[in-house]
Design goal:
Largest interface: A-B, 125 and 124 residues
Strand order of the largest sheet of chain A: 3-4-2-5-6-7
Number of strands of chain A: 10
CATH superfamily of the largest domain in chain B: P-loop containing nucleotide triphosphate hydrolases
CATH architecture of one domain in chain A: 3-Layer(aba) Sandwich
Strand content of chain A: 5-15%
Structural class of chain B: alpha/beta
Strand content of chain B: 5-15%
CATH class of one domain in chain A: Alpha Beta
Radius of gyration of chain B: 50 Å
Number of helices of chain A: 10
CATH topology of the largest domain in chain B: Rossmann fold
Structural class of chain A: alpha/beta
Oligomer: heterodimer
CATH architecture of the largest domain in chain B: 3-Layer(aba) Sandwich
Helix content of chain A: 40-55%
Largest sheet of chain A: 6 strands, mixed
Helix content of chain B: 40-55%
Radius of gyration of chain A: 54 Å
Order of helices and strands of chain A: EHEHEEHEHEHHEEEEHHHH
Chain lengths: ~425, ~425
């Protein structure tokens, strides 16, 4: 479709404003999951990111509680800023990686993510659909311990299992324990291992805008982001900053030379929050859904057919099967009908032939009889004729005799 | 772009916490808008109205461009829907606009089925979306949404009232699409007549229970203007792509000997109001209503028709798998049953026919048995007659033989008598 030229202002350029207005009215929601061993500063980072005390005296964070097994806990808060309302759900995973044997410690996490997708799928599949809250996990921040060496087996295992279920953003926690050089090396090593293990971490979408692409390239160079978090505000050179006070100085959270916190915050909240949600919806959720539905509808159907069926909706599939069946039935019906007709025809023909045969025989017998009758009549006629003749003859003879006798008598009479 | 965020109560079960600084999520609306703009928008308008009411011209005027199409003739056999899609751009906003026109609406002698093809068309778009939504591997994000977002219903400028065709059609469409009724070619009506006409139309719509689209008044930003505009419905419009010089400007107008009707003059007609409401203020709401109200209604009815239902809210939430599986099993067993029924029916027929034919055969044999018997009787009669004749013949033969014998004797005797006499004579 070629673009048309408009000769004058129409006004649909106002559409984005309409969308803006409606979205503000609706409000926003976001679910952020944090995963990592205890003591890596997860809760502190959340508080720093959202400039609030998510976990306070009344709502103690998971780190305050002792956990024996991996739990998955969520806290929901409502925050407002500039007229925009955000329902923020933070999902914490206390106990992760803390046990001696951490096999399968990722399972509760996977279960949680899947169950949220399941909830959404069920809500989406209802006949009566109402307000569908989106509680799916939009982003998972994975905290890597600042060992300086490389990824631990647990890190690799976790990311491999989660990367096609949720947007994974790996972070180097407590980055203030690494010098910039150590940090650089560490980052390089981690990225190398991520590539080696084919782990798909969250990728920034391509953009046509040059400035944006420059920004994105800068971010990509700093991956994985090394962060520092703090609940404490310290005065540095007359400025009030969030930071960690050491005898040798203050590590400032929002100082780009000290750590990548600002990069993370800007990316996670200010520029790519919507994209994280979109990728969750369009990619991760769709993967979950198609796997789930394929399992259902392929039950009892041979796999050779299933490939084509994936692109059809189950209803359409049923419709098609129904139609196929109707055709099959029709065919069966016509076949049966044909056989039936044929057999009937055969039988009828036989009956007809039999009737004809009997008819013929009957005719023959009749004719035979008639012929005999005729013969008999002829015979009788002949006989009657003969008899008549003979009787006539006899009568003549009789008459002659009578005459002769009469004459004789006459003669005799005359003599006397 | 079909929005996945359906309106809900913000912050269910969440506690409000204060922020000690600027976090930055107030950029979310901008992020959302940027994504929408990058993705592009789409809008689909359906124009319903009799031939010659200026539907195409109005579209051209609204969008400041000449769309394709020649004027339609009045001799269409039925109502057809012709749809055309255009790519428009204004500043950085790309709009995929689809204009659907009803061709031949109101031209037939019997207009009973006029609304049917329109309803079918609207339903077909819903159906296409539903099918996509139900697919296992689906691409909703890049789906080209063809569902009708707004239906402009063109009312003929008679000045009296709505035609029954209008009422019937709008009643059939009001639960399927956002209807915006407009009075077409309103330059044929005087101002006073127009007021009366609008009142008459509105009251007829109300008394017939026709739900037309109401511009939303829940958002304070636009509540006032929308509510005012709701009072001006139906909009009396005039369309024109020709320009006339008024003062020192070229304006879209229709020139008559008695004056010039300026399309964008709010004293002359409601065109500006229509454009404002339809495009500049409520386009997004029209899209949203279509998706969350009309489409949901269609979807619910369709699924219920196919036998799907939700379990009551108290019990466990319905598992999609179970639904599909149960549906499928039910469906398969139904098919099996049908097959079995048909087979049984055939077996029955065969039985019946067999009995019939057997009966016929029996009759045939009986008939011929009867004939045979008759024949036997006849034969017997013949035999009797033959015998009788033979007896007669024999009797006759005997008689004859006896008579001949007598004669011979008589002759002999007679002969001897004669001989005797002759002898005596001689003597």
């Amino acid at each position: 479709l070629a673009l048309r030229n408009l000769e004058g202002y129409v006004g649909f350029a106002n559409l984005p404003n309409q969308v803006y207005r409606k979205s503000v009215k609706r409000g926003f929601e976001f679910t952020l999951m944090v995963v990592g061993e205890s003591g890596l500063g997860k809760s502190t980072l959340i508080n720093s990111l959202f400039l609030t005390d998510l976990y306070s005296k009344d709502y103690p964070g998971p780190s305050q509680r002792i956990k024996k097994t991996v739990q998955v806990e969520q806290s929901k808060v409502l925050v407002k800023e500039g007229g925009v309302q955000l329902t923020l759900t933070i999902v914490d995973t206390p106990g992760f990686g803390d046990a001696v044997d951490n096999s399968n410690c990722w399972q509760p996490v996977i279960n949680y993510i899947d169950s949220k997708c399941e909830d959404f799928l069920n809500a989406e599949s209802r006949v009566n659909r109402r307000l569908m809250p989106d509680n799916r996990v939009h982003c998972c921040l994975y905290f890597i311990a600042p060992s300086g060496h490389g990824l631990k087996p647990l890190d690799i295992e976790f990311m491999k299992r989660l990367h096609d279920k949720v947007n994974v953003i790996p972070l180097i926690a407590k980055a203030d324990t690494l010098t910039p050089e150590e940090c650089q090396l560490f980052k390089k090593q981690i990225m190398k291992e991520i590539q080696e293990h084919k782990i798909k971490i969250y990728e920034f979408p391509d953009t046509e805008d040059d400035e944006d692409s420059k920004l994105i390239r800068k971010i990509k160079e700093r991956m994985p982001l090394a962060v520092v978090g703090s609940n404490v505000v310290i005065e540095v050179n007359g400025r009030k900053v969030r930071g960690r006070q050491y005898p040798w100085g203050v590590a400032e959270v929002e100082n780009g030379e000290h750590c990548d916190f600002t990069v993370l915050r800007n990316m996670l909240i200010r520029t790519h929050m919507q994209d994280l949600k979109d990728v969750t919806n369009n990619v991760h959720y769709e993967n979950y859904r198609s796997k789930k539905l394929a399992a259902v509808t392929c039950n009892g159907v041979d796999t050779s057919k299933t490939k084509g069926q994936l692109t059809k909706s189950p209803l359409a599939q049923m419709e098609e099967e129904r139609r196929e069946h109707v055709m099959k039935m029709k065919k069966m019906e016509t076949e049966m009908e044909q056989v039936f007709e044929m057999k009937v025809k055969e039988k009828k023909q036989k009956l007809k032939d039999s009737e004809a045969e009997l008819e013929r025989r009957h005719e023959q017998m009749k004719r035979n009889l008639e012929a005999q009758y005729k013969e008999l009549e002829e015979k009788r006629r002949v006989f009657e004729e003969e008899k008549a003749n003979w009787e006539a003859q006899q009568r003549i003879l009789e008459q002659q005799k009578l005459d002769a006798t009469m004459e004789k008598n006459k003669k005799k009479g005359k003599i006397f | 772009m079909a929005s996945t965020e359906i309106a809900r109560q913000a912050g269910e079960g969440a506690r409000a916490v204060p922020l000690s600084g600027h976090v930055g999520f107030d950029s979310m609306p901008d992020q959302l808008v940027n994504k929408s703009v990058n993705h592009g928008f789409c809008f689909n308008i359906l124009c319903v109205g009799e031939t010659g009411l200026g539907k195409s011209t109005l579209m051209d005027t609204l969008f400041n461009t000449k769309f394709e199409g020649e004027p339609t003739q009045h001799n269409q056999p039925g109502v057809q829907l012709k749809s055309n899609t255009y790519e428009l751009q204004e500043s950085n906003v790309r709009l995929k606009l689809t204009v659907v026109n009803t061709v031949g609406f109101g031209d037939q002698i019997n207009k009973e089925d006029s609304y049917k093809s329109i309803v079918e068309f609207i339903d077909a778009q819903f159906e296409a979306y539903l099918q996509e939504e139900l697919k296992i591997k689906r691409t909703l994000h890049s789906y080209h949404d063809t569902r009708i977002h707004a239906c402009l219903y063109f009312i003929a400028p008679t000045g009296h009232s709505l035609k029954s065709l209008d009422l019937v059609t709008m009643k059939k469409l009001d639960s399927k699409v956002n209807i915006i009724p407009i009075i077409a070619k309103s330059d044929a009506i005087s101002k006073s007549e127009l007021t009366k006409f609008k009142i008459k139309i509105t009251s007829e719509l109300v008394s017939n229970g026709v739900q037309i689209y109401q511009f939303p008044t829940d958002d304070e930003t636009v509540a006032e203007i929308n509510s005012t505009m709701n009072g001006h419905l139906p909009f009396a419009v005039v369309g024109s792509t020709e320009e006339v010089k008024i003062g020192n400007k070229m304006v879209k107008a229709r020139q008559y000997p008695w004056g010039t009707v300026q399309v964008e003059n709010e004293n002359h007609c409601d065109f500006v109001k229509l454009r404002e409401m339809l495009i500049r203020v409520n386009m997004e709401d029209l899209r949203e209503q279509t998706h969350t109200r009309h489409y949901e209604l269609y979807r619910r009815c369709k699924l219920e028709e196919m036998g799907f239902k939700d379990t009551d809210p108290d019990s466990k939430p319905f598992s999609l798998q179970e639904t599909y599986e149960a549906k499928r099993n039910e469906f398969m067993s139904e098919l099996q049953k049908k097959e079995e029924e048909m087979r049984q029916m055939f077996v029955q027929r065969v039985k019946e026919k067999e009995a019939e034919l057997k009966e016929a055969e029996k009759e045939l044999h009986e008939k011929f048995d009867r004939l045979k018997k008759l024949h036997q009787d006849e034969k017997k009669k013949l035999e009797d007659k033959k015998k009788a004749l033979d007896d007669e013949l024999n009797m006759f033969k005997q008689k004859k033989t006896a008579a001949e014998l007598l004669q011979n004797q008589a002759q002999q005797a007679g002969g001897s008598t004669t001989l005797k006499r002759d002898k005596e004579r001689k003597n």
